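Sample pair:
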Amino acid sequence: MRGGFGLVGPRRERHVVPAADLDLLALPVGDDGVVIGVDAEGRSAVLGINRPTPYEVTLIGGLWTAQVLALRAAATGARVAVETGRGQVWSGLAQAAGGGQQCVTLHEVGRIPPQGASAGSPVLVIRDCGMRPPRGRVVAGPWQAVLTLLPYLSPTAPRLLQQSSLVGVQRVSPDEAEQIGRLMRLPRQAVDSLPTLGDGVTLWCTPRDRQFVMTQGTDAETGLLGGARRID
């Protein structure tokens, strides 16, 4: 016993890593946020939705992918507010998320209240309002991202795509692929691949960058939502 210092702990050799080996400790994650799947090289693809600046996302895809994103955003500590006209398909998720805490709330279209987002309580608003979503009462702002889900390309899609910071595209028809290619300035190879994408595969893109991501559900997500699917 040492006076005032407690017991002497066990002696161990120090863990030393040579400076030349530090790069080996790097993690294959480019940003912090929600892990949305893996890229073509098998590296983790991360979507940073909790930002101090407004962040608009449009997903032309299936309900399954939007719901996985909602669960994973809630797991990072974000509150998720879902504006939807089909509350019955979201109610099970809202009840299961958060381990009894109300971290996912459901609201009728046009009736979502202000969310009071902050750095300590970020918010993801998911707008599941069909092919022609009305202009939202709650818009993107600091620490409040908005994800609009479109099942297919609609007349409102060009406006949404142009104002979005990020666009996700799942399997679409060849005609839709051509239109999206023009709007997002996609290369021919990417346009040709859109009608053939498998369930769970999303092309996340901006006018300058693009990345294919495969989203696979965890055991808990699959138990709650079923397997990956493009068509609801």
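The chain has six helices and ten strands.
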